[in-house]
Amino acid sequence: MFFFAPEAVFAKKCISLHFVMTRLKFIGAHVGAEPSVAVAPREAAALGASAFAFNLVDPQRWASPAYTPADVDSFRMACEQLGFSPAQILPHSAFVINLGGPDPRKRAMSRRLLIDELRRCSLLGLAMLNLHPGAHLGKISEDESISLIAENINAALDATEGVAVVLENTAGQGSNLGYTFAQLAGIISFVHDKSRVGVCVDTAHAFAAGYDLSSPQGYQDMWAEFDATLGPSVLRGMHINDSQRALGSRIDRHAPVGEGFIGEEAFRRLIADPRTDGIPLILETPDVDRWRQVIARLAEWHSPHE
Ligand SMILES: [Zn+2]
Ligand SMILES: [Zn+2]
């Protein structure tokens, strides 16, 4: 009887709460998608991952063959069977895309490819697409480039349905924009449909751009700035990379988690932070053959009831 066993009821509640909270931490890696996208969810499952990223198309090319109906079915079926929902999947768009460059022809090509990738997301049943904001290439001002990026995102969102563009912060290498949260907020301020734009924070990029998340204070300061400029609800994913280069170097070189300048403590803090619940947390580190162990270790750091 319920009245005589309140402890049992309480224990049951704790177990289900623990299950829900554990499930909310989606940890994975950027996996392969060759010869077909259907490989990606299977590779992720083999790593013991609960999230994954992959390339929808050849990231170095302007055009890739359309998916066959068999590719699409096989991807969707694998995700369903292996338990990957759209909230756990953050595909990465092609590197050739530059929405903020000075050349109108290249911008048009970039916009076309972004639209193609957003449509591929819809075909695969996915909800978001990770995008590097763009680079001014030293030929136009940062502000001009930022408004071009927003203009092209608006055009791509107008030409598609549902899928959100998730802007990744950059290390600020070369003339790449999006190395400050204020720049990302600037782009987003011009985007008409705010429900279809978000941000993915890459820890190595943030550190290289000058956000010192290696220390407890620096970590707090980084998120305080994020919340003040962008707002906490804009965060749609994270790339979990340590940095081979020092704070503020503006050089983008990923290191295995705990083996770079950011250090293990910072990643423990990040995984324990409720802010990282329910969004894909993706490794893009060079220790590919250790990803299975790293994912298991990161998942261990998330222990809400201990
Ligand atoms: Zn990226
Ligand atoms: Zn990244």
Describe this structure in words.
The chain has a single domain (2-301), classed as TIM Barrel. Helices cover 42% and strands 12% of the residues. The chain has ten helices and nine strands. One zinc ion is lined by residues 168, 202, 239, 284. One zinc ion binds at residues 168, 202, 239, 284.
Features:
306 residues; alpha/beta; TIM Barrel; seven-stranded parallel sheet; two-stranded antiparallel sheet; 10 helices; 12% strand; globular; binds zinc ion
Distance between the termini: 30 Å
User: How many DSSP-defined strands?
Assistant: 9
What would you say the CATH architecture is? Answer: Alpha-Beta Barrel
**What's the number of domains?**
1
**Approximate shape:** globular
Helix segment tally: 10
**Can you tell me the CATH class?**
Alpha Beta
Summarize the structure.
With 306 residues, the chain is an alpha/beta fold. The protein has helices at residues 6-23, 39-46, 69-82, 104-124, 142-158, 181-190, 203-208, 216-229, 264-272, 291-301; strands at 26-30, 51-53, 128-131, 164-168, 197-202, 235-239, 242-243, 254-255, 280-283. One zinc ion is lined by residues 168, 202, 239, 284.
